[in-house]
Write a sequence for this structure.
């Protein structure tokens, strides 16, 4: 299974990218759609929101009045944190159900608006950021969604900055042209990177001829991904760019982590050596036993 995190600022056009990925065969797990589902009338989620924010967030028919909730929840950090504490666990649980049902060979694309803010990027083999500059996003939100400009600016200000998004981006997809140009870029990304990456992970094989990229932020991303994959099986993980060293925990032998690393996108190529399965980036991981690190 290849897991991709898809995100971008509100109004950036993630839905266009997600639709094209779905047409190409990906299973889309849409965070916004699930967020609406878990607070439908009669759900524990909606009851929890009413208890936290009051009856004024309900429409006349008993459904959630989203603009009313947004006016309260995005007014300050405390209210936003309260909203997130209610909805995020519900969205996470439902997402896990959909991923489990997709099967082991699926390409899962999780469309997560707050992927950067919630620091979940290391969970994914690949993170795609859809980008449009702030002024264009405001224009889209006001013109296409009918959002007041002040509300649009407040929503944008509450999300991650472009710099924070760049730090976690494996793919920076600029959605500044026509819709067809964006869809064409997604098709090329699928053919050149996503589909072969998924096939390599399924076969536990490294990518051949992957380029070594100049990406100063990648070392931290690689370190975090390895920690997420290995957990307590590692005692130390360090990375210098796209070259990482893993020191296993005391008592853990390399065979115990070989499949774990391969599933995470780092295929074995020899004793203690692994290479990335991503055809878009050359990566090397070396694994050492605990005693040999002394």
């Amino acid at each position: 299974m290849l897991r991709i995190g898809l995100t971008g600022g509100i109004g950036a056009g993630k839905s266009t990218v997600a639709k094209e990925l779905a047409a190409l065969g990906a299973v889309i797990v849409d965070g916004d759609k699930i967020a609406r589902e878990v607070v439908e009338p009669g759900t524990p989620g909606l009851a929890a929101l009413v208890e936290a924010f009051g009856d004024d967030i309900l429409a006349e028919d008993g459904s959630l009045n989203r603009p009313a909730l947004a006016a309260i929840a995005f007014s300050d950090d405390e209210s936003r944190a309260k909203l997130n504490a209610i909805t995020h666990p519900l969205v996470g649980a439902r997402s896990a159900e959909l991923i489990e049902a997709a099967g082991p060979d699926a390409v899962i694309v999780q469309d997560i608006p707050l992927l950067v803010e919630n620091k979940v990027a290391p969970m994914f083999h690949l993170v795609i950021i859809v980008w449009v500059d702030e002024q264009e996003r405001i224009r889209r939100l006001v013109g296409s969604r009918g959002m007041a400009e002040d509300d649009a600016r407040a929503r944008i200000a509450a999300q991650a900055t472009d710099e924070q998004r760049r730090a976690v981006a494996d793919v920076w997809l600029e959605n500044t042209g026509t819709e067809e140009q964006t869809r064409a870029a997604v098709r090329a990304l699928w053919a050149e990177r996503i589909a072969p990456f998924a096939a390599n992970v399924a076969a536990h094989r490294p990518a051949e001829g992957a380029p070594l990229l100049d990406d100063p932020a990648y070392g931290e991303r690689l370190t975090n991904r390895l920690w997420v994959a290995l957990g307590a099986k590692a005692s130390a993980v360090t990375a210098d760019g796209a070259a990482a060293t893993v020191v296993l925990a005391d008592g853990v032998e390399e065979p115990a982590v070989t499949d774990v690393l391969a599933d995470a996108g780092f295929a074995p190529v020899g004793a203690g050596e692994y290479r990335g399965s991503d055809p878009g980036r050359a990566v090397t991981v070396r694994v050492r036993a605990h005693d040999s690190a002394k």
